[in-house]
Design a protein that fits this description.
The complex is a heterodimer of chains A (365) and B (538). Chain A is built from 13 helices and 10 strands. With 365 residues, chain A is α/β, with parallel strands linked by helices. In chain A, strands 1, 2, 3, 4, 5, 6, 7, 8, 9 and 10 form a 10-stranded mixed beta sheet that branches. Chain A is globular. Chain B is mainly α and 538 residues long. In chain B, 75% of the residues lie in helices and 1% in strands. Chain B is globular. The chains are: A alpha/beta (365), B mainly alpha (538).
């Protein structure tokens, strides 16, 4: 009996030794943050999803000007990140949350996780993006979920790529489209909402039956759809993907150019501009934030010209302010979606679950 | 016993109970009516059925394919064995996104199998089953093989001298001795496949869903906590039942075994039968494990300008390119190693103490504790992660943004491995050896050092290897709680795969290859740690 205790003792000693050891390198960083926390918060914490990104120098500049140190916490995809905020309501992990979009906006607002704050610079934001009149959330970026096509495929077959949702159910595009599961993937949901926007709450099911009859394939996530099944992407080519149409983003072609190896002169993929759903992403000051002043400064920063112009190449989304210039990559290889489909956040909140269920029953099962 | 209890109470039972409670308790009290409501839904019934039968099928298939390998690894000596043992453990740490990619390349449209024989297995259940074998092969090889190598073959030989046939001798002597390890391995494979998440998501397409996938969807996507709570409880009940059956079969069979140094039990394969067996196992490993891994490595070198190191060089620049998107890969490796080391240490401490306490085999309470230790394997990362959020939110335990949360969550999954690997060996140590040492005048410490340690050290290292590998590859919990400035390798891979563009895809493959290497090298080092270089099987 004593022997087993001793084994345990040795294991514990080893454990503690290693834990302390590995803690050393880390603790130094934490301590500086913790020490500055103590007198009056000079640290401001941004909670976001995995896709949040900003150029180091841009963030540094904000830190120098404002005197705050920014800490970023990323926690999962957009839906999961928001739900964590709802669960920790009143005792948030940070001061500002970025990444709630118009498909989830009502859930966030109904749960009351944000404190109203009118950002400096809100006047520069295009008014059509300001969906909450109480300013509990501030629009930060917008992006379009659209069908992308493989230019080479359609050139070779000598048929025109589809342009609209109606085109996708035509026989010449049979068995060409791959989309994502609307239940688990945000582009998948966006595409479903595009059809709801276009054909209405009564007509979308009929559209999807036709799409299914026309051989639409559903995979679970964007990674598989885009990197495995889509014949136009770099990953898809290697994986011998054979679907020349995929539900992705309007910014995907510029990304293919930017991360091409070597960079191609022209994007290998195009966007069917009549198939789009517009996503708008918001940020808000969290109720119960420890550093409210810092949080306000951070929201101001997110709509500042500097950050707005940094976003496109970091997160591949469009700015929401009037005067923010787009990088050349976007103006040259991107597209302007004139008339994206849209559905009001309240309508989405009310029906989303039921739509997704109906969609699953109709398309997947 | 106290430390494991506190650990599990604080970092498992309490958070999970809190999140389940949040789902089932409203102002009007507990809503147990939810159970009937959720369980009567036909879609949930489908999920339950699929979860169960695919787990059974996966476990059987894994045992069938991996048991011969466990024998080969335990008893034969052949060049490259140590390396191969590390290689078969690599799948265990790979992010499922990456493995899905590899499997689709082999089994999917235009894949190798398609080109050679025109067979496609993607979106069929076969792809899921094969991927489960791929992931869990090492569980059987290491758990069963570890014990097998220490069984004295002379016992079986003795039985044969006494007139038993080869099969009878094996069935009467070796099989009962192995049974606890086989049961432990099957149990772990079953739990892993029962709670399978990534594999089912990627290879099954949206038409197959396990309980775990459903819990994730209900919690993280829909925030339908009541439904998620019911499903979590169902998963609990199922695992509880499995553990009960397991405990019952194991207790009937456990005996003190005569363990010997593995160095004395191995030999070069003799005769065509043994050579065929070895060849068959090597071929299986090549097809099932090395080939998918090879595809990933191949893709990491396959740059548009021909094969080269382009993507690896790009990884070097990524850190300098600015953005909080990626830290330099070197840093991600270092982060991963630190987290994994800390998690291994915690898992060894907690698991070691627990195993020691369980060896004493005292009554119902301890057996219940045994089951409790296994539960984390069957509870979804998202449940635990969300539970952490709502429980560990007050000083002194506001750990929600602390780095230690990652190793803690990883250790939760590592502990069951430590316990399962250590228990059969600890229980098999013949108490009389210890008594003999004491009679000969050894102090308890000396007796432990001379008797227990040499026998247990191996199991301890195997356990550490598992815990380390699990921690290195853990993704579900890590992605929720890892701090943005300190991503681990799997998190970095997922971020790269989440973006369009050739360079991102190539870098994801390159980083996955590095993850494989780091894992294989770590495991090799761990096995080398054994100080008694003279013995051992290599």
């Amino acid at each position: 009996m004593s022997t087993t205790k001793k084994i345990a003792g040795v294991a514990l000693a080893a454990a503690l030794g290693v834990t302390t050891l590995s803690a050393c390198g880390d603790e130094s960083k934490d301590k500086t943050a913790g020490a500055s926390d103590a007198p009056k918060s000079t640290t401001v914490t941004l909670v976001s999803h995995d896709s949040f990104n900003v150029t180091d120098s841009v963030l540094k500049e904000f830190e120098q000007q404002s005197g705050y140190t920014v800490k970023v916490l990323k926690s999962g995809d957009a839906g999961a990140a928001l739900n964590q905020e709802i669960l920790t309501k009143g005792s948030p992990r940070g001061d500002v949350f970025f990444g709630v979009d118009n498909t989830l906006l009502s859930r966030a607002l109904d749960n009351g996780i944000f404190t109203p704050y009118e950002a400096k610079g809100l006047a520069d934001v295009k008014p059509e993006y300001v969906l909450d009149k109480e300013h509990r959330v501030t629009p930060i970026d917008s992006g379009d979920i659209c069908v992308n096509y493989d230019k080479a495929y359609f050139a070779e077959k000598k048929i025109a790529p589809p342009q609209t949702l109606d085109d996708l159910i035509k026989p010449e595009y049979k068995n060409l489209l791959v989309t994502e599961n609307a239940a688990t993937s945000s582009p998948g949901l966006g595409f479903l909402l595009a059809s709801v926007g276009k054909y209405g709450e009564d007509g979308w099911k009929d559209y999807w039956s036709k799409l299914k009859a026309n051989g639409v394939e559903v995979v679970d996530g964007w990674e598989q759809a885009y990197n495995e099944r889509f014949s136009g992407s770099a990953g898809g080519k290697k994986a011998k993907g054979d679907r020349p149409l995929v539900v992705s983003y309007a910014s995907s072609p510029p990304v293919e150019v930017l991360y091409g190896e070597p960079q191609p002169a022209e994007a290998p993929t195009g966007v069917s501009t009549g198939t789009c759903f517009r996503q708008i992403e918001f940020a808000g000051l969290l109720k119960g934030a420890k550093n409210e002043e810092g949080g306000k400064a951070l929201v101001d920063f997110l709509v500042s010209k500097k950050f707005q112009e940094d976003m496109p190449l970091q997160m591949f989304v469009n700015p929401v302010t009037k005067d923010a210039a787009l990088p050349e990559l976007f103006t040259k290889h991107g597209v302007v979606v004139e008339k994206p489909e849209n559905v009001a956040p309240e309508t989405i909140a009310k029906n989303r679950e039921q739509w997704v269920k109906a969609w699953t029953a109709l398309v997947v099962k | 016993m106290a430390l494991p209890l506190v650990f599990f109470g604080l970092f498992f039972a309490y958070p999970v109970a809190a999140i389940v409670g949040r789902g089932l308790k409203t102002d009007e009290g507990w809503q147990f009516g939810r159970f009937a409501e959720v369980l009567s839904r036909p879609d949930i019934a489908d999920v339950l059925w699929f979860t169960t039968w695919q787990a059974f099928a996966s476990t059987l298939l894994t045992l069938l394919i991996a048991l011969p390998a466990a024998y080969v690894f335990a008893r034969f000596e052949f060049p490259g064995k140590q390396l191969l043992r590390a290689v078969v453990t690599v799948p265990f740490v790979l992010p499922t996104v990456v493995v899905g990619t590899a499997f689709l390349a082999l089994l999917g449209r235009g894949g190798l199998l398609d080109e050679l024989v025109g067979v496609r297995l993607d979106t069929t259940v076969w792809a899921i089953l094969l991927a489960h074998v791929f992931f869990n092969y090492a569980v059987v090889v290491r758990t069963v093989g570890g014990l097998w190598a220490q069984l004295d073959p002379r016992q079986e030989e003795a039985a044969r001298v006494l007139g038993a046939g080869r099969f009878t001798a094996w069935r009467r002597v070796t099989l009962p001795a192995l049974a606890p390890a086989v049961a432990a391995a099957s149990l772990m494979v079953f739990l892993f496949t029962f709670s399978s998440f990534g594999v089912v998501l990627i290879l099954g397409g949206p038409s197959y869903s396990t309980l775990e996938v459903e819990v994730y969807r209900q919690t993280a996507q829909l925030l339908d906590l009541p439904t998620a709570a019911v499903l979590t409880m169902v998963q609990f009940a199922a695992i509880g039942a499995i553990l009960a059956v397991h405990a019952w079969t194991v207790r009937k069979r456990e005996t003190a075994l005569r363990l010997v140094d593995p160095g004395r039990t191995t030999h070069r394969p003799r005769g065509w039968g043994q050579r065929t067996l070895l060849g068959g196992v090597l071929l299986t490993v090549a097809l099932l494990i090395v080939l998918p891994l090879g595809v990933l490595v191949e893709r990491s070198f396959d740059t548009p300008g021909g094969y080269g190191l382009g993507y690896y060089r790009a990884l070097q620049d990524a850190g300098a390119g600015g953005g909080t998107f990626l830290v330099a890969p070197l840093e991600a490796i270092w982060n991963s190693l630190q987290y994994a080391l800390a998690a291994t240490a915690i898992a060894l401490a907690v698991g070691g103490l627990a195993a020691a306490a369980l060896t004493r085999r005292g009554g119902r309470f301890v057996r219940g504790f045994d089951a409790l230790l296994m539960l984390p394997l069957g509870v979804s990362a998202v449940t635990v992660g969300f539970g952490f959020l709502i429980t560990l939110d007050e000083p002194p335990l506001d750990l929600r943004t602390s780095w230690i949360l990652v190793p803690l969550a990883q250790a939760l999954v590592g502990v069951p491995f430590v316990v399962r690997t250590m228990l059969p060996v600890l229980r098999a140590v013949d108490g009389r050896l210890r008594e003999a040492a004491a009679v000969l005048g050894a102090s308890p410490l000396r007796a432990w050092r001379e008797v227990d340690l040499p026998l247990v050290r191996r199991a301890l290292l195997i356990a550490a290897g598992f815990a380390f590998a699990v921690s290195l590859g853990e993704f579900g919990a890590t992605v929720f709680i890892a701090r943005a400035d300190r991503p681990t390798l799997p998190v970095a891979v997922a971020r790269l795969l989440g973006r369009a563009g050739e360079l991102n895809y190539g870098q994801a493959m390159a980083l996955s290859t590095i993850l494989m290497l780091v894992c294989a090298v770590s495991l090799l080092l761990l096995e080398r740690l054994r100080p008694d270089k003279t013995s051992g099987e290599f």
